[in-house]
Specification:
The complex is a heterodimer. By secondary structure, chain A is α+β, with helices and mostly antiparallel strands. Chain A is built from 2 helices and 6 strands. In chain A, a hairpin with a 3-residue loop joins strand 1 and strand 2. The C terminus of chain A is likely disordered. The complex binds flavin-adenine dinucleotide.
């Protein structure tokens, strides 16, 4: 069994962890184009090399970030997301449609 | 020693050159009308139909390893068309039909064997799903029925009807389900293609793709640069890596998929048996071995190592289905790289680069589609028009949120 070093719980069996996908900038869902949103949800780099990824330690519900080589499966580093996310991410409100548009709809 | 054998041994003309399956390796030319990246089943099938139906023979298939050494050699060779969506069923049914005629067409035995495939339902939700699949399949001319536990017992008397405390409630009996010798499919297509003038270059890796004004002009290889009229990419687990050389980003994540095989025993299991709930499918090959496979690895990786975790879980489930398997010995275990899409349907057709065509996203289910992929990709290259059968599988479906969801019909990954 492979061991993964959880920043919160220390070394644990890999079966306790869930892969959460590549770390990437989330576009503002209320302002971005459909294409940009599709790119964010479906597309990925998926290359061979060291990737920065989200991982979840399922039993404790704790999300963290890992730098992992996708060819050798070696995990270089795991750390708390606060290293990258120093500020709260705020999204704009969904734009209300104007009354005239509503009538048409 | 029999005299006739001695005669052959001393005969200068033997082995006969014209009987050689593949021509001897040649130098790479500086230009081909069509360059096909990947010498798996899909690549050589495309080359074959280009030559056979469209008279296009200035074609090179570039393969970094050896012919059919990728997933074509690693899959468990389940052939079926009992999918869920009308797009899927139409497409895979065409492939099953082509498979049935391949041995005759190649004059080479691909050992196609129609056994029927039985998928087990262990929950009411699964039974409902099976009902829908039965109707969709029948609508498109397929032979699929919903059968009850008594009929299942008659078909597979050795099956445990209560595996892992999940009673078998019903079965999706797909009479068209079949298997074939996977290597022979690649060899048959390669032989047919090279006889018609196509060049197959093994040990030739594409390392770069050059574009000019949004069109591919040439590819770089470990044996030098090759100019080309257009490119077809058919590299299975390397889809994202090769596409990135052409500046294309894909909606794909690459996971290892493992399978294993036991020692041969007397024939006892005719149908291919699959339990999506137990993530396990089992079948007996023509040589008597039991081949079985299951779910993908839990996270993405470009590695074909075997893992203890998978062995443990897969064996546990296989033994639940057929308890006497606990006494059998494993011969081999292996893995392949599968390029998974989020809707479990392939990515075929045009790409953002004008003369660069994609045959990708074949994940864990692309052996069965080898003939129809070759045929439709060849038509696309020859005519420049996307054949109707593969229109729904365009990569652009992700940009417009029009996925073709086959996840349920692919649950035990094959
Ligand atoms: C364990 C397992 C079980 C499976 N079971 C089934 C099943 O039961 N039924 C089913 O339908 N499907 C199954 N599949 C899926 C099926 O194997 C694949 O979808 C199918 O073989 C893909 O065919 P292909 O010709 O596209 O790929 P491949 O046969 O993998 O050919 C691609 C080729 O491209 C080459 N290549 C890659 N990069 C380069 C480069 N840069 N330059 C040159 N060449 C390159 C590779 O060496 C490879 O030979 C299974 C897969 C696995 C791994």
């Amino acid at each position: 069994m492979k061991i993964i070093n959880c920043p919160l719980n220390g070394p644990r069996n890999s079966s306790e962890f869930v892969h959460g996908g590549e770390l990437r900038q989330m576009p503002d869902p209320n302002r971005c184009t459909d294409k940009a949103w599709a790119d964010y949800v479906f597309y990925s780099d998926n290359q061979i090399g060291v990737m920065t990824e989200w991982w979840l330690h399922a039993p404790s519900g704790y999300w963290f970030i890992a730098e992992r080589h996708t060819g050798s499966d070696e995990i270089m580093r795991t750390y708390d997301p606060s290293e990258i996310f120093t500020q709260r991410v705020e999204f704009t409100e969904k734009e209300e449609c104007s009354p005239s548009e509503e009538v048409k709809a | 020693m029999p005299f006739s054998l001695l005669k052959y041994g001393l005969n200068k003309d033997y082995p006969f050159e014209q009987n050689a399956d593949l021509p001897a390796p040649s130098a790479l030319k500086s230009h081909y009308d069509v360059v096909i990246i990947g010498g798996g089943g899909h690549g050589v099938a495309t080359a074959y139909y280009l030559a056979k139906y469209h008279g296009i023979t200035n074609v090179a298939v570039l393969e970094k390893g050896y012919l059919g050494g990728g997933n074509t050699a690693r899959n468990t060779a389940v052939i079926r068309s009992n999918y869920l969506t009308s797009e899927g069923v139409k497409f895979y049914s065409e492939s099953v039909k082509l498979f049935q005629g391949l041995s005759n067409e190649f004059d080479f035995n691909i050992m196609y064997s129609r056994r029927g495939q039985l998928t087990l339902a262990h929950s009411d939700a699964a039974v409902r799903g099976f009902r829908q699949r039965t109707e969709v399949n029948k609508h498109f001319g397929g032979k699929t029925e919903l059968i009850d536990p008594q009929q299942i017992r008659e078909l597979v008397p050795t099956l445990n009807m209560n595996p892992a405390d999940q009673p078998v409630l019903a079965g999706l009996w797909h009479i068209d389900g079949a298997t074939a010798r996977h290597d022979a499919v690649a060899w048959g297509y390669a032989k047919g293609a090279t006889q018609r003038g196509v060049e197959l270059h093994q040990l030739t890796e594409v390392t770069g793709i050059n574009t000019e004004n949004g069109k591919v002009s040439s590819v770089e290889t470990n044996r030098g640069k090759v100019n080309c009229g257009c490119v077809v990419q058919a590299v299975a687990g390397m889809s994202s890596v090769v596409a990135a050389m052409a500046g294309i980003r894909m909606p794909i994540t690459t996971y290892p998929l493992q399978a294993m095989v036991t020692q041969p025993v007397k024939p006892f299991l005719d149908p291919l048996v699959s339990s999506p709930a137990l993530h396990c499918y089992v079948q007996q090959t023509g040589r008597g071995e039991l081949v079985f496979g299951g779910g993908s690895d839990p996270y993405p990786l470009y590695g074909t190592r075997s893992t203890m975790d998978l062995k443990e879980s897969l064996l546990a489930h296989a033994v639940e289905l057929f308890p006497f398997m606990a006494n059998m010995r494993l011969m081999r275990q292996w893995a392949g790289l599968t390029d998974m899409t989020s809707d479990y349907s392939p990515i075929m057709g045009l790409s953002p680069v004008e003369n660069y065509y994609l045959d990708a996203g074949w994940g864990t289910w692309g052996f069965k589609s080898t003939p129809i992929c070759g045929k439709t990709m060849a038509e696309l290259v020859a005519t420049g028009k996307v054949p109707e059968l593969i229109e729904p599988f365009a990569m652009s479906r992700f940009d417009t949120f029009r996925q073709v969801n086959e996840m349920g019909a692919t649950a035990a990954s094959h």
